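Reply to thread "Modeling small-molecule complexes from scratch"

Following up on the discussion above, here's a worked example others can learn from. I took a protein sequence and the SMILES for zinc ion and predicted the complex. Inputs first:
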Amino acid sequence: MIRYTGNPYVDAGTAVLELRLQKPCSDFTDGDLASQAEWIKQEYRKKIWRSYLTIHFTNCAWVQHKISPEKEQAYIAKVLESYKSSPLDPRRSCAFCGDPANTVADRSHIPLLTGETVMVAGAGGEPGLPTCGYCLFAIHFYPLATLKVAGRPLFWWAFNPEWIRRLTDRFRRDVDKVLAASTEQFANVDWPSTRLLHAAREVVDGLENVPAGRRPSLGDIIGIHATNLGTQPNYEEIRIPSGLLEFWSEAGTFGPLYRQVEADAWETRERKVRKLRKQQSKAKKAEPPPELVRRNRLFEALGNAFVSSDYRDEAKQIAVRYFLRRSGRYATSGTTALAEFFLEKVAGMEKQRLEAIRQIADLIAEELILGKSGNVRSVEPLFRRRMKLGEFLRWLSQIQRRLSDLGRPLSWDSVLLALDLAGDEDRTAKDFWLVEELVLIRLLERAAKSDVLAELPEPEAVPPETGTTE
Ligand SMILES: [Zn+2]
């Protein structure tokens, strides 16, 4: 039977079938499969699929113009009806689900395999990949959930089928827009990370309407960007960690702030669309739907970070660039809280440490900026940026003395915790630049409603960089 196997191609195709048939794959009947087979035979004969299917199933019968009716029929019977035939003799297991295989496949049937003539020896001496007819059937529906991004199919996989279904459903609607925009060519779009993260964020948003008990638990989700059109398979995964999904699912509790961060990161529609139209009319290429052409700088930055298995440092840079925002001296209330939540969920920073940073900033704001015996000049070094670690520590120790004089002691232990230092001799605070930035923005946020704000120097802009330790 058709089922989720852990293979991205089989699973994406299974999700498409579930969405089309509006029932779980465990309830599929032979009649359901026959009706879907009839439908897809007609669909894939459309001109728009011909060129696009080449990058899915190299040299498949759907894309060959001069194929004989017999060969075409044999191909279609193999991919859509093998599940009816008896198991291979001698028996071999399906590479995807482990059930008895009924056929052997090559790259014209399944992506990322080699060609029929290239593979001269396979398991059991017969060339090709042993496959059951059900997995092969499902794979033939996966293109319906793929976008053509930078010339390669882009689609979803996750451990939890509920996530595959939701993400695939979202992409399937994008595919419908592409099909509606042109009947000739399947439009190519850009920016895989933007396409993936935008879809994923909308799916996370949609969970709000699902009763709490029925929401799928959050786990990592994976965008797959692959083809074997070239001489060898070209396979890339963009992993989106569950931490980002957790962040998204609660970002709304910080008011409209996150929406604004995301909205401001979109490339302007008009400019992008105009540029694209020009290019495409020159090259006579299909025009993609406008909502699928723009880049989102935040999504691209996150996607680039997730390429590395340890993306925490990169996520800290993103927090500074996109979340710790100010306009001149003005920082909107809640800015630091949102950034802290992002740093906790996506950059893996400990809550305790983030709280220590905020407490230091609040103490400085309350006593030295807003307090009766305030001394705005004492915070100026933080505004003339950027201090090196030694300077930053010296400044904090001066602040500590002033606060102590005012009867509001700042414990040095919390300074060490804020900077993630083991002791006074430790100089490994690699991300002290982030601490400086968090303190600065928090000070501005606290001073935003006060007249003192005008007395503060305007912070100098600094390029995003990690700084030096000495
Ligand atoms: Zn199988």
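What I'd highlight from this example: The chain has three domains: 8-141, 192-306, 327-455. The CA atoms of residues 416 and 422 lie 7 Å apart. Questions welcome below.
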